[in-house]
Amino acid sequence: MAKGVSRISVSLPPEVLTEFDETIGFLGLTRSKAIQVAMRDFLTEHRWAGEKGEVAGALTMIYDHEVRGLNEALTDVQHDYRHVITSTTHVHLDERNCLEIVAVRGEAETIRRLARELMTKRGIKQLKLSILLL
User: Fold this and answer.
1) From CA 109, how far away is CA 72, in angstroms rounded?
2) Cα-based distances in Å from 39 to 10, 34, 129
3) CA 109, CA 53: separation in Å to the nearest integer?
4) Ramachandran bin of 105, using left for φ above 0, alpha for ψ from -120 to 50, beta for the remaining angles
């Protein structure tokens, strides 16, 4: 084993391992390399959670615009956080579902509050926050 490398063991459901192996085979990766990439992505995605200071990124959400009051609630939240929202893009996915991408820049804690507030709204189906440290 190479110096500075740790060997670990993980337990996975068989169907997850099967899909993982198929995907890494398609990509030409070894299990070790794919897990290293996945762990780095996980760390990058979540490292900022305890950060203070200025960050930038995008908040991506899919929601059901037919849920009563949701559009107004989203607009109100975005107006409340206009000091950290730099732009938004709205996409109609189908008759009910919309994709909204909100570009943000500001204090990390403020961005976390914005994401938490949006996530609590009834009708939000999925929300992902991608942050980059400045």
Assistant:
1) 24
2) 13, 9, 17
3) 8
4) beta
User: Would you state the structure tokens that stand for residue 1, as one six-digit string?
Assistant: 């084993």
| Level-2 CATH architecture, domain 54-133 | 2-Layer Sandwich (3.30)
pLDDT digits (tens, 9 = 90+) for 100-122: 999 999 999 999 999 999 999 99
Q: How confident is the model at residue 40 (pLDDT cuts 50, 70, 90)?
A: confident
Cβ neighbour number for residue 31 with a 10 Å cutoff: 12
Largest CA distance in the chain: 59
Rounded average pLDDT over 68-76: 96
* 74's tokens: 């989203």
Amino acid identity, residue 8? I
Neighbours of 114 (CB within 10 A): 21
Angle at 78 between CA 72 and CA 80, to 5 degrees: 105
Q: Give strand pairing partners of 100.
A: 61, 90
Total residue length of the chain = 134
Q: What is the pLDDT of residue 131?
A: 85
